[in-house]
Specification:
about 25% strand; single chain; alpha+beta; about 240 residues; Tyrosine-tRNA_ligase_regulator
């Protein structure tokens, strides 16, 4: 029985030791840090941040195409429109004392405007025939001085024949025409914006196309008109005669 008692005492002693034992410090030690990377191993570089995409530049608007002309004017109309040809009334007419060719005219071109004109008509038309008559004049040529007198317009006339048989007659505005009426091409419209001063080169081109066609004044075959009708010539002026 002594042996059994000794064994019980030993077990009791062991239980007591176990019940009063404190946990070891190792039980509360933090977990070891992960092992460092092996020496010489490359550390991956952080990935670069993605670049923000640039907004596309707005496209430049295409230059506008030139506007197409809506006037529909022909080359003849465009050229003729440079000249300002008007109906005028001869208010006075006298031979120029120091000239055998020139007549000195005062003309009314409308809107209360009077101009002086030197016309080379003395040998062809008597002064009294012109007084009070209606004529057609180019009103935007550069003023000139002839035989010492200012000439501020040009009277249009047609001629026919040669030498002693040469005849010259002024253009005849239609019935009902009045000073200031604008002369234009048939089928067109009165000149809206004539040249302020018509260059001689342009007038030469216009003059080259002025002829008598069918008894009427024309430019390159198109009749010269006012709002009242055709500008004509006396019957003694033949077909094809030139107008100056």
């Amino acid at each position: 029985m002594a042996a059994v008692e000794l064994l019980d005492k030993a077990i009791s002693l062991l239980d007591g030791l176990l019940a009063g034992a404190k946990p070891s410090a190792a039980a509360f030690a933090p977990a070891p840090a992960p092992a460092a990377a092996e020496k010489g191993a490359a550390t991956p570089a952080p990935a670069p941040a993605a670049k923000a995409e640039k907004a596309p530049k707005p496209a430049k608007p295409a230059p506008a195409a030139p506007a197409a002309s809506t006037s529909g004017a022909s080359e003849d109309e465009t050229l003729f429109a440079r000249a300002l040809i008007k109906v005028a009334r001869v208010t006075s007419c006298e031979p120029l004392a120091n000239s055998e060719k020139l007549l000195l005219l005062q003309i009314d071109i409308g809107n209360g405007e009077t101009r002086q004109v030197c016309a080379g008509l003395q040998q062809f038309i008597k002064a009294e025939q012109l007084r009070g008559s209606l004529v057609c004049v180019v009103a935007n040529l550069k003023a000139a001085k002839l035989a010492g007198q200012a000439s501020e317009a040009m009277v249009l006339a047609a001629d026919a024949g040669t030498g002693d048989s040469l005849i010259v007659r002024t253009l005849i505005p239609p019935a009902g025409a009045a000073p200031g009426d604008v002369v234009f091409l048939s089928g067109g419209a009165p000149t809206a914006a004539p040249d302020k001063v018509l260059k001689s080169d342009h007038w030469k081109k216009i003059g080259a196309g002025l002829k008598v066609v069918g008894g009427a004044a024309s430019f390159n075959g198109r009749a010269l008109v006012t709002a009242g009708g055709n500008v004509t010539l006396p019957s003694e002026i033949p077909e094809g005669a030139e107008i100056h």
